[in-house]
Design brief:
With 280 residues, the protein is mainly α. 73% of the residues lie in helices and 0% in strands. The longest helix has 25 residues.
Length: 280
């Protein structure tokens, strides 16, 4: 078996994965893995790519993109072992889709000159869904599958909520402006407060979910990514709480040795410091 060296050639990465999954001579851990056990790592790597982008760290982004690419190669190798498809099929599928969805770039002269017609993207995706549904059922029955069926269940809940709402909005099931969405938000908040007052835990959870769903709709109408907004809020919380910890440490104290009032005052200090820094 030849020795492998780092390379820019994707074929080398494919060979590395093949060897890792080769019975007897491969890696015991890699050989034990399945689609199901690897899937969480795939999601994790996608989030790490997003994190590197948010931090503006290009070196980290390069590394995380490599980790994400490995996930694609991993799944393709396991599929090839089952004679389902291989990496080449994955590449062919995505190149065919990109060419098909961009006739204004890859089509003939007439298609390129025409540009992108209004509603083209949704029509193209609808045609693909209909074709897929027909091939899976053995019948050509466009429109049989729900337009919401293609939104993956495994997506983060807030992201999936926005995508579900976007799909419904594409066929007219949507409020025309932000105002009625905000009214619905207030309505759902009232229902949550009523459920809390009634001390019905199951109902509280249901109403809380409804409130989050409407908040996702608010984000969609404002053209805000709720996941990005929440990540930013998380980082702000971490940053300000770190300020509290450091300020208390300077006083020879730990958070557990402090009062809520003292920590709240330090929180406001951190908030004011950030406000001053952003205004400069």
């Amino acid at each position: 078996m030849s020795t492998l060296s780092p390379s820019r050639d994707i074929a080398v990465l494919l060979e590395i994965m093949r060897r890792l999954r080769t019975p007897k001579t491969g890696c015991p851990w890699d050989l034990e893995q399945t689609f199901e056990t690897i899937a969480p790592y795939t999601l994790e790597e996608a989030y790490e790519v997003a994190d590197a982008i948010a931090r503006g760290e290009m070196a980290d982004l390069r590394e995380e993109l490599g980790d994400l690419l490995l996930q694609v190669v991993y799944h393709a190798q396991m599929a090839e072992e089952q004679r389902a498809f291989d990496f080449g099929d994955v590449v062919q599928g995505i190149t065919a889709k990109m060419i098909r969805r961009h006739p204004h770039v890859f089509g003939d002269e007439a298609a390129r000159s025409a540009g992108v017609a209004k509603g083209f993207w949704e029509r193209a995706k609808a045609a693909e869904r209909a074709e897929k549904a027909g091939s899976e059922s053995g019948k050509d029955e466009p429109g049989r599958a729900s337009i919401l069926a293609e939104v993956p269940v495994a997506l983060p809940a807030l992201t999936r909520a926005v995508k579900l709402q976007h799909k419904a909005a594409a066929v007219g099931f949507d409020w025309p402006s932000l105002e009625p969405v905000m009214a619905k938000l207030k309505e759902e908040l009232g229902e949550l407060e009523s459920a809390i007052a009634a001390d019905k835990k199951t109902k509280v959870q249901e109403e809380f979910g409804d409130l989050l769903f409407v908040l996702a709709n608010v984000a969609r109408h404002l053209e805000i990514d709720p996941e990005s907004a929440l990540r930013a809020a998380n980082e702000k919380f971490v940053r300000r709480f770190r300020y509290i910890e450091e300020a208390l440490a300077a006083r020879g104290k730990k958070p557990t040795e402090s009062s809520l009032e003292e920590m709240d005052a330090l929180w406001n200090e951190a908030k004011e410091a950030e406000s001053r820094a952003s205004s400069q």
